[in-house]
Amino acid sequence: MKSSFQQLIASESVVLVDFFATWCGPCKVLGQILTAVKADVGAAVKIVKIDVDKNQPLAQKYQVRGVPTLILFKDGKQVWRQSGVVQQEDLKRILDQY
Fold first, then answer.
1. What b/e sequence results for 35-66 when a residue is b if at least 16 CB atoms lie within 10 Å of its CB, and e otherwise?
2. Which residues are catalytic?
3. Superfamily covering domain 2-97
4. Rounded to two decimals, what is the model's pTM?
């Protein structure tokens, strides 16, 4: 899993990773926001969801302490991150920068 994740964030130009948990209420809210953002940005941004309970080593590697946590990778490098729910307009504005 780990190497394929590395390949994924390196292969796509812009990848937004959503570290979430199935039991997390705000994660569900953010999931709906991400769906709407994906509809807006289309193929320009790849959105990947990572369940922290199933992928603890990956969550630890990126020091995810709370969910939801969004991390934006550009060409395999972390360029932005935020924990908590990010509003649709704010997220779209951030993605537009990359």
1. eebeeebeeebbbeebbbeebeebbeebebee
2. 24, 27
3. Glutaredoxin (3.40.30.10)
4. 0.93
